[in-house]
């Protein structure tokens, strides 16, 4: 014969805890375990990306010896020379920029910016734009940093201005531009003035629309709460270098191909028309998605085009390209990206034409 106690014991779940109950107190429900991120996929893609980068650079450096009997055409040798030259020149600046960007992400708290910026949004925009001069960061890193600023209370217009200025006018970018265009300081000045102006104009436009914040989805941090600073630095550096390094190789290969494969007459025709050349190189910057620390070397290799057109290439690339559009859509939402990217491209093209006419 069963008793009530036997019935209760029979209906108890087999894995339920058997802790004794305290009279008058409710038993707290166990907290779900914190999810552990699965890094297998990201590690595998990182290894594949690094291997591809090493293979491409190795082929460019030693391909002539390996395939000496198959490829003897002058065009192939010219392609390899241009590819290696652009990649080797740009790589030190890329590494330095990634290191500084990761250090900024890991060791400078976002609350610092909230305290440093003026309270009035219209005044915070130019201050945030100007801060890009002293705070280095590549475009990949500027998106999560801007997201962190918004989450810490910085007005979105100021965070957007910083997003656009930091990868375009920081010291590493300006130094690489000076090395890529030796003896032409006006190119460095033109790039800094144009990029600074674009960031401020778009920040103020975001304020004037009035609906901007409704198009914006405030994101979560890329790193979990409580992650150590050294781990944030390591993961940020690895992430940015793998992405930026791969795009640098692709950009160098595309620039070399453009100079070797595309007929000289066609390039001369495009380059002879100012507006067309500016738009074409602006679109090329969107498609190539080269890191801002390295794009000046690619621009310097496009000698068929005017300085104004190459200025547009260097201004557009760090603020709107295919990888940035994807990053912004994933971070801030597609409603933001479909409005922000076209507006950024148009303002950058018009600003490049204006500053190029004025300074170049």
Automatic annotation (TrEMBL):
Compositionally skewed regions (Low complexity) per UniProt: 18-28
Coiled coil start-end: none
InterPro entries in the record: DUF318, UPF0718
Main location: membrane
Location relative to the cell: Cell membrane
Keywords: Cell membrane, Membrane, Transmembrane, Transmembrane helix
Residues passing through the membrane, by range: 43-62, 83-108, 157-181, 188-207, 241-262, 269-290, 336-359
Membrane topology, as annotated: Multi-pass membrane protein
UniProt-annotated stretches for the region Disordered: 1-42
PANTHER family, per database record: UPF0718 PROTEIN YCGR
Family to which this protein belongs: Belongs to the UPF0718 family.
Protein name per the record: Permease
Originating organism: Kribbella orskensis
Lineage: Bacteria, Bacillati, Actinomycetota, Actinomycetes, Propionibacteriales
């Amino acid at each position: 014969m069963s008793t009530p106690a036997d019935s209760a014991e029979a209906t108890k779940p087999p894995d339920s805890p058997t802790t004794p109950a305290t009279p008058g107190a409710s038993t707290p429900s166990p907290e779900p375990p914190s999810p552990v991120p699965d890094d297998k996929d990201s590690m595998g893609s990182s290894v594949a990306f690094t291997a591809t980068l090493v293979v491409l650079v190795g082929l460019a450096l030693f391909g002539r010896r390996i395939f000496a009997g198959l490829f003897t055409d002058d065009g192939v040798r010219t392609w390899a020379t241009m590819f290696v030259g652009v990649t080797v020149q740009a790589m030190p600046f890329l590494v330095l920029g990634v290191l500084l960007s990761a250090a900024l992400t890991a060791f400078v708290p976002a609350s610092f910016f909230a305290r440093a910026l003026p309270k009035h949004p219209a005044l915070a925009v130019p201050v945030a734009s100007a801060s890009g001069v002293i705070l280095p960061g590549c475009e990949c890193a500027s998106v999560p940093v801007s997201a962190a600023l918004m989450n810490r209370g910085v007005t979105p217009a100021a965070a957007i201005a910083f997003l656009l200025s930091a990868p375009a006018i920081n010291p590493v970018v300006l130094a690489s531009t000076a090395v890529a265009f030796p003896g032409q300081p006006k190119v460095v000045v033109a790039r800094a003035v144009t990029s600074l102006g674009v960031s401020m104009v778009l920040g103020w436009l975001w304020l004037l629309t009035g609906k901007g914040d409704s198009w914006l989805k405030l994101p979560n941090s890329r790193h979990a709460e409580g992650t150590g600073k050294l781990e944030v630095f390591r993961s940020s550096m690895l992430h940015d270098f793998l992405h930026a390094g791969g795009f640098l190789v692709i950009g160098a290969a595309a620039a070399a191909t453009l100079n070797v494969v595309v007929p000289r007459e066609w390039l001369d025709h495009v380059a002879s028309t100012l507006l067309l050349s500016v738009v074409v190189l602006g679109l090329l910057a969107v498609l190539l998605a080269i890191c801002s620390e390295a794009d000046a070397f690619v621009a310097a290799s496009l000698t068929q085009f005017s300085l104004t057109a190459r200025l547009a290439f260097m201004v557009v690339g760090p603020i709107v390209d295919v990888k940035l559009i994807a990053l912004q859509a994933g971070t801030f939402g597609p409603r933001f990206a479909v409005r922000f990217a076209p507006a950024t491209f148009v303002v950058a093209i018009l600003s490049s034409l204006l500053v190029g006419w004025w300074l170049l």
